[in-house]
Structures are given as C-alpha cells and as structure tokens.
Amino acid sequence: MNDGRIGAAAALLALLLDAGVAAGEGPATLTLRSAVERALARDPAFLAAGSAAAEASEGLKMARSVFGPQFVLTSTPGVTSGLPLTVAGEPPAAAGARLRLTLWDPALKENEAFAFGRSAGSAGRLESARRETIRRTVAAYARLHAAGGRVESARRRLAAREALHARIEALGREGRASALDVERSALDLARARHGVVVAETGRELAAVDLRIATGLPEGAALVLGDDPLGALPETGEGDAVSAALAADPELKALGEESGAAARAAELADRWFRPQVIAEARYLYVPPYYNYDQYYLKVDTNTASAGVSVIIPVLTGGLDTARAAQARAKEERAKEQRRAREIDVARAARATAAEADLAGREVELARKGLAVAREALRVAEARAREGRGEPDGVPRAELEVADAEDALSRAVESLTGARLALLSLRGEIAALAPPAPPALSRP
C-alpha cells in the first residue's frame, strides 16, 4: 500500500465519521484505532513530512530517469547561407527524430546516489512523524479516559465532604463542635467543590485536544470505546535498547545516507570516468533545403546510429571537489548516526525503567483501591448494623476517591511510558494502517 492509498483510506474514514456527526446521529463510539486513523489523515506535521518524502522520492525518480530511453521529435525549418550550421544543436531539416540512451555517466550516478540519500532521509523522518502522531493521539485518548475517571472520583469526594460537613454543622448547632471545626469542614467542602471544577475542566481540555487531533467538530460528544492501556499491543521480547536501535527509522535513514554518499565519493574518486551514450537519429531533408550545393550526395532521408564515449581529462578541479563534498556528507551522516544511537539507547533505557516502575505503581494502586473498597464495604455494613462510627462511611468514601485518583494517575503514567517504549521499538505501528514500502537502492 502506498502513501496515496493510505491517505485516501484514512481521509474517507474521517469524512464518513464527520458526516455521521453532522447528520445528528448522536455521539459515535471512538475506538483507539479509529482515533489514530483520523489523526493520521489530518495531522499537519505528519502530512508535511509526507509531502517532503514525496518530493524527495520524485527527485530520486528524476535522477534515475536520465538513464532511461529519451525519444524526441524535431523540426528545424530555416535558411542557410554558406555551409549549413546547426540551429539549437539541430541541423536544418523539415522533420527528425532522436533516440538517446545514456549507458553510463559517473556524474549522473553521483546525483542519483545523493538523491537516494535525500529520499531515504525524508522517508525516515516520515516514519518518525508517523510514530509521533500515533503516540500523541493515543496519549490524548488516554488523558481523556483518565480525566473521566477523575471527575467521578472528585464527585465521590464532594459527596463525602458534604455528608461530613452536614454532620459537623449539626454538631456545631448542638454545641458539640467548635466554630473552628465547622470552618475547617467548610474549607474542606470548598476544596472538594473546587476539585470537581478542576477535574471537569481537565476533562474538557483533554476532550478538546482529542477533538483537534481527530478532526471532530467543536463540542462533538466523545464516547471512548477502548481502555487505552488494554488496547495497547504488548511489547516484544528482547532487550529494549537493541530493539529500539534496530527499529529506529532515522538511524536506518542515516545509514542509507552515509552509504549513498560513500558510493558517490567512490565514483568521484575514479580517474577513469567515461560517459557512454548511445544515440540514433533520423532527418528528413527536402530538396529545397539545397544541401546538394555543399555535399556531393544528399539523400532526402538521412539516418545514423552509434555510441559516443567521452573521457574527461581536465575538469578544473570539479571531480576533486565533488569527491570531497561526498566524503564530507558521508562523515556528517556517520556522526549524526552515532549521536542518534546514543540518544536512542539512552531513551530506551530510561523509558524501559519508567515503564517497569509505572507497572509496579499500578499494582500498588490497585491493591490500595481494593483495600479502600473493602474498608468502605465494612463501614457500610457496620452502619447498617448501627455499630459503626458516625462518619465512618463518608471517610471510607474519601479513601476510595483518593485510591481511585492514585490508580488513575498510575495507569496514565504507565500508558505514557508504554507508548514511548512501543514507539521506540517500532511496535506502535500496530495501531495504524501499514506504512508504505521502503525505497529501492540505486
């Protein structure tokens, strides 16, 4: 599947989803994969990288095209005075045709190698942009999913604070609670209300980010169909650093650029650099062109074919400069590749460690939530039996709300760490349509 087919399929899906929203069919369930597909059809950074890759790919085709057959038709009407001379490189003739084939030209091969390097670099940056678009979209999806849970926790906390404050106020009216206790309770209640506002604002901002990423209309209802952490593919086997280095598209692209520059330098360093061109020509020269005044025998239909071999001897230092330029490009690509290797290895180690720690935090948070829910169950049972603390249930509700918040933040952190690790390993591509095929070498 090429770039055009992928873009067309993603754009068609996006248009269909937009049409459903505009037709008033109600909120559609947005799965993680559909969100990624919509984002890939719209993200400006990804689309710009795609255009740059297409531009470089066409440049490579142009560089290669010079070695294909070149056929042109000509007509050079004119008059001559004295010996017939060429006009714009063509002898005067009523009609003509020329078939030309460049069999070998080191300078053109160097240009092809450089074009391949540029195309490989653009392809690497395109794949990096693709992965970043996927990662950013899934992260926005995960933020909205987590924000929804935090709103529920904030509302649970507010309900518990309202119950506690009502009791403190009643105790204050009976003289069994001080004014300071009542003020403290009122402050806790105000903080809980503010917490609901903060949570709802965070959810709305997360929704705005996801709508922008997926191209949904402003204010469109969002119903998430997936648990983002559960929808992520599992990381593969093997060391994270080795996997990241093997999968990094920019490392591969820099290797291709370095190899292309080395090939160009090797061509430029050769002392024997012949240009071999095969050409066949035909001219139709009517009698009124008066060629018989200058040549003993002139045929109206003239044809010739042959091979031209041109061997440059003195080039004014051009070949030396081209070789030096190619070597400099090769060294630049090699040093950039070494720097990239260091960065990728460092990021892979750090991200793998973060994912491991985040996974442990999620397990602890789940245990904490289970303990808090059990404490709430016990408090509710004791309250029904009339032997519990007066504020036992609301305080247990507060513990559950805090545990839910802790789990939500831990899951969001684990999702982000796993996303980064999947992106580094190249396994995040499982959430999107397949990428276009790689370029063929020159």
Looking at this protein, list some descriptive labels.
4-stranded antiparallel sheet; single chain; elongated; 442 residues; 10% strand; 10 helices; alpha+beta; Outer membrane efflux proteins (OEP); disordered N terminus
Written overview of the protein:
The chain is α+β, with helices and mostly antiparallel strands. It has a single domain, classed as Outer membrane efflux proteins (OEP) (Up-down Bundle). It has helices at 3-22, 32-40, 44-65, 106-173, 179-214, 228-231, 240-247, 249-269, 318-385, 392-425, and strands at residues 29-30, 70-76, 93-104, 223-224, 275-284, 301-310. Strands 2-3-5-6 form a four-stranded antiparallel β-sheet. The protein has a two-stranded parallel ribbon with strand order 1-4. Helix 2 packs across helix 4, helix 4 (106-173) packs antiparallel against helix 5 and helix 4 (106-173) runs antiparallel to helix 8. The radius of gyration is 36 Å and the shape is elongated. The two termini are 22 Å apart. Residues 1-17 and 19-25 have low confidence and may be disordered.
Briefly summarize what is shown:
This protein has 442 residues and is α+β, with helices and mostly antiparallel strands. 66% of the residues lie in helices and 10% in strands.
Averaged pLDDT? 88
What proportion strand? 5-15%
Q: Helical content, roughly?
A: 55-70%
Architecture (CATH level 2) name: Up-down Bundle
Trace the largest sheet across and list its strands.
2-3-5-6
Number of helices: 10
End-to-end Cα distance: 22 Å
Report on the biggest sheet.
Answer: 4 strands, antiparallel
Structural class: alpha+beta
Task: Spell out the CATH superfamily.
Answer: Outer membrane efflux proteins (OEP)
Number of strands: 6
